[in-house]
Amino acid sequence: MSLPPVGLAHYLAVAVLLFAMGLFAVVTRRHAIGVLLGIELMLNAASINLVAFNRFGPLVTVKPGAGVDMADGQIFALMVIALAACEAAVGLAIILRLYQTLATVEPDDADRMRW
Amino acid sequence: MREMRETRGFVLGPYNPSPTTGLVDVPPRRRLTVWNALWLIAEGAWTILVGHWVTLRNFWRKKVTDQYPHRQARRNWLPGPGYRGDFALITDWKTWELRCIACLQCQNVCPSGCIHITPEGRGRERHPVEFYIDAGLCQYCWLCVEVCPASAITMTPDYETAVDTPRKLIRDIDYLRTRGLEFDDVQRPLEAQQTAEAEHEDKGE
Amino acid sequence: MNLVQYYGLTAEQWLEYVGFLGTAGVALVSGLGVLFARRVLHAAVWLLFCLLGVAGLFALMGAHVLFGVQILVYAGAIAVMIIFAVLLLERATGRGILSGNRHLFAGVVSAGAFVVVMAPTLGVALWAAGWPSQTAPTTGQTNVALIGRLFLTRHLLAFELMSVVLLVAMIGAIVLARAERRSDAEEAPEAQGGGAAHVPTEEARPS
Amino acid sequence: MIADWAERIRAFSEGLCTRFGIPGLLVDVLAWIFGAIFVLLLITVVALAAIYLERKVSGYIQSRLGPMRVGPIGLFQTPMDALKLLEKEDIVPRDADRFLHLLGPVLLVSATVMMFAVIPWDVRANVGRWLDWEIGLLYLVAVSGIGMLGIVCGGWGSNNKWSLLGALRGVAQLISYEIPLVLAAMCVVLQAETLSLSQMVEQQQAGIWAWFLWRPWLMLPAILLLIAGIAEVNRTPFDIPEAESELVAGFHTEYSGMKFGLFFLAEYTHLFVVGLLFAVLFLGGWASPLGGSNLPFEGLVWLNLKAWIFVLIAMWVRWTLPRLRVDQLMAMCWKLLIPASFAALVIVGVVLMYA
């Protein structure tokens, strides 16, 4: 029996599990901040994927043996982090605002625009 | 003219807010130009440097600490008049007996109940056979000394009263007598001592 | 010296394996912590550890800059911000915020469906021989220099756009989260001169 | 050639490996473990020494003698206090959040310990030679940000209003002062063109005049780093989070026993790390001010000397200046230090571009 060395699939597996956890949290959480936490988990799973494909994926073997400077996946992940910062800041501001106007923080209760 | 203003943020200068209103007496603001601001920063930096110079000087100065029990800079140091240290019962210098007449006034007046006296005899023969003061309970309020008609009890300026067991905090009559003999009552505030003596004489002892 | 030629892995691969298991374990266990913590505050703290675990995964994959940025921005700023928001809300509502679940069935179904769809990946990772994992041959350029160069050449536009987005988000967040103040608090301090009776208090503001 | 004592440690662990039949790759693991043990011993000694020094310095500045009783000149006072803290009861308030209450000191201390990983102690000698990272400075800054979470957790978890206020103030202060700190460090990065701390040191190796401190355009960043560094460890002109006169003891009001001791440990270790950072960035790190030389352990001695000088300066500042008010603190950061550090960054960039 031989064990596969740590490769793309391992990181993808971690990302899958993290994404599933995030999805579960987003769907089930009652509290808006809980939803936000789930979104952060999903974003992290996505950036793990990006970096893993950058590291192990076919991109790096465009010119085999020559050595390629390919860090596009890392750059994408950096942008994901920056956007996550924006998203968290704006999201938290919205949540605080929601509490100030509606005195609730449950996304299900904010249904004024529905009718 | 100075006016009271609410301040916000960074106030340059030694303006202290009033304790009652929380407002600050600020001179009317001049326009803060760049040079002005730079000058303020430089001035602040200079004052900080001066402060550091002061502490540095103190750093090298001779230290004033007296490492008391190990090394004593001043031998036989006594605290100032009126210091309330260990207790003592005063022995009369004529009869060589305790002045205490066991009237129990100190025991009654003591707010913390730290005095316990067993009297014996009647009239002029009345004297204490046992006289306990619990120094752990005592709050050094001086009431027993005030109330004593015979000026028999006092507090000496002895400050080295530390003991190693709580039991030793309870001073018995022999201890108190010895303290009184060691210190007599010369350390009492002079006027209090003289008036006490005078009253003692007046009563026709 | 050939102690660990087990399971067809070299010593280096074993080391990587151990490191991977450790960091992935941290990430996944604290992810579960995020799910099952009773209080939202605890969930946020678990999220912090999850982010640190993900940062460890980045470091294992050679993305060192990303590792630093993940810790600096995600763990140091975003997690703190979320924790702060939770604290503010707990102060405002006056009770601990519990992370109750609502659409439990829907959550289980969606997450389960996702995992089922992605099951081949998991299977490959755990049992199969694994996808060929080529490691990038490098030119000796450090990760920092590489990313810096890429940011200023190929991804310049995205880089600039990102800064604009950050600025917009910052301003937007400030505008959104700012409580409505009473008008007199907005006035310049010169307008309140001489008013010894006017002592501004924090309690005057809503919540 | 500098005697490479890191090589000796490595040789020692290689010897261990051949002795016990451990595969060659694990030599690095062993070296990491030795490095970790070194750091753990170091922070204990450093914290004890720094606390002793603080007491002595404060005493001398106030014309006192400081601790004199235990040991020769009071040398054993701090170890005895540490022992006392160890044996004291660990009290957790009744309604406290036990998880967060425990997490606070743990996070703070671990963040501080992790910062030691990238410090270049000597030529090519970090913890286990592995963490001479290309992102050294970024790592240092990032990890120090985790400590702030420890303050929040501790302050909130103790369920005490003083703790909470202290924690909020502390985090506000740390976040604010991290900006000038990082910007001042970025000036050095512009000069050195690298984030790796050991490469920065290598550029200042030639002697005392090669230090970055003497470049005229780097003097302002040095001052900014000094101020922001002192603020970053919550020391007295900036110790708003634990202002005794307002909040009882700030975020560690409700701590006792060894958790309190951990807060102390973290504070003084963090101070030392900031000293090390300052020494590496501006004072040439392990490089001798006399130029090259080849005594064993020389780099370690020089680096420690420079860091301790920073620690002494921080103590001098602490016992000289009074505490700032909260608004003064924030105003100083946002209105003075941050513009100044941006200006410094621009100046350094322009100078380096045209020089």
Query: What string gives the helices and strands of chain D in order?
Result: HHHHHHHHHHH
Which residue ranges of chain A are poorly predicted, with pLDDT under 50 across at least 5 consecutive positions?
60-67
Strand content of chain A: under 5%
Q: Kindly state the percentage of residues in helix of chain A.
A: 55-70%
The biggest beta sheet of chain D is recorded as:
none
Largest interface: A-C, 80 and 102 residues
The structural class of chain A is mainly alpha
How would you portray this structure in words?
- The complex is a heterotetramer of chains A (115), B (205), C (207) and D (355).
- Chain B has 205 residues and is α+β, with helices and mostly antiparallel strands.
- Helices cover 30% and strands 14% of the residues of chain B.
- Chain B has a domain at 87-190: Alpha-Beta Plaits (2-Layer Sandwich), CATH 3.30.70.
- Chain B is elongated and about 90 Å long.
- The N and C termini of chain B lie far apart (73 Å).
- Chain C is an all-alpha fold and 207 residues long.
- Helices cover 65% and strands 0% of the residues of chain C.
- Chain D has 355 residues and is mostly helical.
- Chain D has one domain (93-354).
- Chain D has eleven helices and no strands.
- Chain D has helices spanning 5-20, 26-61, 77-87, 98-114, 136-157, 161-192, 197-203, 219-232, 257-282, 298-318, 326-354.
- The longest helix of chain D has 36 residues, at 26-61.
- The interface between A and C is large, with 80 and 102 residues.
List keywords for this structure.
heterotetramer; B: 205 residues; alpha+beta; Alpha-Beta Plaits; three-stranded antiparallel sheet; two-stranded antiparallel ribbon; 7 strands; elongated; D: 355 residues; mainly alpha; 11 helices; globular
Summarize this entry quickly.
The complex is a heterotetramer of chains A (115), B (205), C (207) and D (355). With 205 residues, chain B is α+β, with helices and mostly antiparallel strands.
Explain the layout of strands and helices.
The complex is a heterotetramer of chains A (about 120), B (about 200), C (about 210) and D (about 350).
Chain A: H1 8-28, H2 32-56, H3 72-102
Helix pairs in contact in A: 1-2, 2-3
Chain B: E1 3-5, E2 24-26, H1 34-60, E3 87-89, H2 105-109, E4 115-120, E5 127-134, H3 143-147, E6 153-155, E7 170-171, H4 173-183, H5 190-202
Antiparallel strand pairs in B: 1-2, 3-6, 4-5, 5-7
Chain D: H1 5-20, H2 26-61, H3 77-87, H4 98-114, H5 136-157, H6 161-192, H7 197-203, H8 219-232, H9 257-282, H10 298-318, H11 326-354
